[in-house]
Amino acid sequence: METKKVAIIGYNRIPFARMNTAYTEQTNQDLLLIALNGLIDRYKLKGKLLGEVAGGAVIKHISESNLIRETVMNTALDPATPACDLQQACDTGIEAAVYIANKIALGQIESGIACGVEAMSNLPFESSQRLRKALLKANKEKSAFGKLKQLLSPGLKDWMPVPYKGQEPKTGLVMGEHTEITAKYYNISRKEQDELALRSHQNMAKAYDEGFFDDMITPAYGLDKDNNLRRDTSLEKLSQLKPSFDKKNGTLTAGNSTPFTDGASAVLLASEEWASINNLPVLVYITFSEVAGIEYVENKQNLLLAPVFAAERMLKKAGLTFDDFDYFEIHEAFAAQVLASIKIWENDELAKKFGLEKALGKIDRDKLNVKGGSLAAAHPFAATGGRIVATLAKLLHEKGHGKGFISICAARGQGVTMILEKG
User: Fold this and answer.
1) Among 36, 253, 259, 315, which residue has the least CB neighbours within 10 Å?
2) pLDDT tens digit string along 308-338?
3) Which H helix or E strand runs over 408?
C-alpha cells in the first residue's frame, strides 16, 4: 500500500505563562479551548468535520479523563469530530503529531489536529493512603456514626494534601537532580549553560520584535506574549543565580532550567488533497520520526538523553547527516541536557561509549533554536511539542526549501525526534 504525504497546514498556541502567574484560575480545558478555537478561526475550520483530534496533558484531574473530546465538543468544529487523549510526558505534543500523521499516511483520515495543554497552576493534589482508604470506607457506611468513625480514623497529618513533586518513581529524583548528574558526568560547565540560556532569550526577543509570532499566538486572559521571556537578562545576571538542585556543587539554576508552566498549543495536519480542497497552503511535510527509550535507573545521567538514540535511528532511515539540516529545534528542558546531547552526537569517543556506531556530526549553533527555545518560552509539558513543530514549520515555509531536525526529551527516559521538509 502506498502511503500519503503528510503536511503541516497550520498552527496556533496561547502565550505560555509561568505557573501561578497569568492563568492561576484556568483549567486544562480552558487553556486548550482558546488554542483550538484560535486555530479554527485562523484556518476557517468552523463547522468542519475533521478526521480526529489527538493530544493530552501530563497532569490531569480525575474529571479530565476525556479531556480532548470534551474540549473539542466545546469548539466551533463539527461536534462529530472524534478525539482521543494520549500522554508521553514532555513528548505528548509531538507524539500526538506522529499519531495523527500516521493515520493520514495510511489513508485512515484526511485531516487532524495534534494538541497539548498543561495547567500547572490548577495542579491536582494527592491524599495520603490512610485518608483515601478512610474516605472509601466512610462512603460504604450506612449510618452517620459509622461514617464519622471512619473519617476520624486518619491522623491530622494524613489529612494534609500531598503536593506534586515530579519525581521519577524508580529513582526518587526530580528531573533537575538527574540533569545535575548529567552535567557533572559530561563536564558541562555553568558558563556553557548560562550562555545557551542567554541566547535562547535573545533569539526569542528578536523573533517577537520581528513579528515572527504574530500569526502563531492567540492572546489569552490578558496575556499576549510568553511571560517567561527575559529581555533584560545577561550573563552577569544569570551567573549570580544560586544552584537549584545541588545547593553546594550544582550548576543548574532557575536561569538555565525551565520552570513549571501553563500553556496550550495545536497543529493542523492534513493530506495534500485535503489542503487543496480547503484552499490551505502546505507549509512543510513530516517525513521521518523516531521514538526511543533509555535505561536511567542505574545510569542516572541518562534520564533525558533518549533522543540521542532516536536521532541515530532516524538519520540512518532517512539517509541524512546533520550537515543536511537548515535548522535544529532541540527542546531546552535544561541547558545541560541540550549540551550533553550535542556533545555525544558530535564526539566519536563519547558516541561509541554511549552506544552509537559513531558520532552523527556537528550541529551549527547558528542553526539551533533560532527563534528561541524552551528556556525562554518556558515549558508546559504537553504543549511544548506543538510550539516546536510550529516554529520549525514556519521557519522552513518562509525559507521556501530545506530540512529541519526536532529533538524532544521526556520523563521516564524517553525521547522523540522528527524531520520536517520543504520543497
Assistant:
1) 259
2) 999 999 999 999 999 999 999 999 999 999 9
3) strand 402-410
Neighbours of 159 (CB within 10 A): 13
CA 314 from centre of chain: 20
Cα separation, 380 vs 57, whole angstroms: 9
Q: If you search the block for the grid coordinates 505534543, which residue do you land on?
A: 93
DSSP category for residue 418: E
Return the SS3 of 181: helix
Distance, in Å, from the CA atom of 98 to the CA atom of 420, rounded to the nearest integer, reads 12
Which residue would you say has higher pLDDT here, 1 or 401?
Answer: 401
Q: Is 404 helix (H, G, I), strand (E, B) or coil?
A: strand
Q: What is the pLDDT of residue 145?
A: 86
In the block, residue with C-alpha cell 541540550: 338
Q: What are the backbone dihedrals phi and psi of residue 184, each rounded to the nearest 5 degrees, phi first?
A: -70, -40
Length of the chain, in residues: 423
Q: Return the residue matching grid coordinates 559530561.
A: 186
Helix (H) or strand (E) holding 128: none
What domains appear along the chain, each with residue ranges and CATH number? 175-212+287-422 (3.40.47.10)
pTM of the model: 0.96
Do 370 and 395 contact (CB within 8 A), yes or no? yes
Residues catalogued as catalytic: 90, 379, 409
Among residues 158, 175, 35, which one has the least CA distance to residue 96? 35
Quote the pLDDT of residue 331.
Answer: 98
Helix intervals (H) in 257-347: 272-277, 306-318, 335-346
CA–CA gap between residue 46 and residue 60 (Å, rounded): 28
Q: Are strands 111-119 and 52-56 parallel, antiparallel or unpaired?
A: parallel
> Residue 35: helix, strand or coil by DSSP?
helix
